[in-house]
Structure formats: structure tokens, C-alpha cells
Amino acid sequence: MRQNLSPGPIFHGYRTAGLILAGGLGRRFGGAKAFAHLPDGRTFLQACTEVMLSGGLTPLVATLPPTLNGPIPPSLLPLPLRQPDLDMFASLTHGLHHLVKDPSWHRLILLPVDHPLIDASTIKKLATQDSPAAIPTLDGRHGHPIMISRSIAEAIAEKHLPGPTLRDVLRAAPAHDVPVHDRGIRANCNTPGTLQEAWDALHG
Predict the structure, then answer these.
(1) Which pLDDT value is given to residue 151?
(2) In which residue ranges of the chain is pLDDT below 70?
(3) Domain CATH for 69
(4) Overall domain count for the chain
């Protein structure tokens, strides 16, 4: 059954929002990663939604491929992209156009859907950062998700910070590093093989 794609009501009363970037077609994975399955049976999208909810984030939205072909968690607002194969920054901008209509949140956590193995403690730590942007690190190496302030989110949505990549925006922000003890921030599950390797490393 096709989901209702209306953005629905504007959310109010929350401080930190969440945006899952899941608009890719996942050609390297063999299909949209949003609806790929973890070894425990959950979809990537479900796992990302659950960890963001556990981290206290709401509202939650996700950019998705134009044609939905999988289940949408009930706590998540789907935002299908206007066309396939948009890059990550275009997907981010699409999500922000909707989120900035809500005046109540002050920070935003950005999570690529191919990082479904992060821990809620990382979400909670990033959500407490009082800075323009923050990136989690493990052993001195950057990972995901990323926190940006409302002012940065609005600047991207209004094309005052046009990128062309999120890395460029974070460099200009500037972003600061947040050390965490979470190997999931580096677990980029962009192929079935890397998913299995990451899963085994975290659960072995």
C-alpha cells in the first residue's frame, strides 16, 4: 500500500530534530539501502529511526527515493525526492526545506541511512553540543551522524551555504570534534559485504 506522502502538520515543542538521508537508489547494495535488511531482520530505515528515537530526537523525517518500495516506520515522516539520483547535498536541502518550517527545534542530527549501527549514546552526546556543528570521532577519525545548529540548517535551506558538499559547509561552520566510544560511527554499510563485516565486528 502506498504511503501518504503529505508532509502533514508542523511539529512543535521539541528541541532537537532528526533527518535520515535515505534517498539513494543503492546500486552498490542491490537496491535502496533504506529498505535493505540487517541480519536481525530490521530495515536500515527502521534501525536508524529506532536509534534516533532512543536518542530523544523528534520530529524525525527521512528523504527517500521518489518511488517508495518498503515499509515506513510510523514515527517517521517520509519525504520522497523529486527525482532519482540526487546527490547527498541535494537530498539534505530537500529535507531541510520541510524541517525549517518548524520553529521549535534548535539542533538537527543528520544520519545517512547506510550508518544504521550507531549507538543512541552518540545521538545524545551530539544533541548536547552548543556549537554551529559537531562531528563524532573515534580514535581521531570522523564518522556519522553529524549535528548542525538551526542557523546552519536555515542557511543551507535558503542556499546561503550552497555546498557543494556537506564537508564544505562543516569546514566553514566550523564543526568541532566530539570523541565517542561507538564503533558504529565508522560502520559505513554501503555494500552487503561491508554490512556483514561491520555487524560481525560489533556483535561478534
Answers:
(1) 94
(2) 1-14
(3) 3.90.550.10
(4) 1
